[in-house]
User: Fold EthD family reductase from Streptomyces phaeochromogenes.
Amino acid sequence: MYNLVLLAARPSDWTHERFIDWWRGDHAELTRTLPGLRSWRHTEIDTALEPRSEGWDGVSVLGFDTAEDLRKALDSPEWAAAVAQVGDMKGRRIAVMGGEKDMLAG
Assistant:
């Protein structure tokens, strides 16, 4: 599996609840149509382990079969629509990509 991992924070004028509702609602409706998307998990962050980890609202992990499949999704009209919906909402994100390895498997 090749993943796009997003760490997201709401705009400063939104509540955590408003952000999660939008992220798992309207925004998810666009994201779930990405071509080649094989898995998708959301984690709503409710507690930071330590002060330096505070300020984030959620983690999203979108899984694709290959890096090429992810690149095709990022070049798609569906991705462009999801990015356009975000617009200039002024939230923060960290977006990284890489191969997944199951560390508990044999």
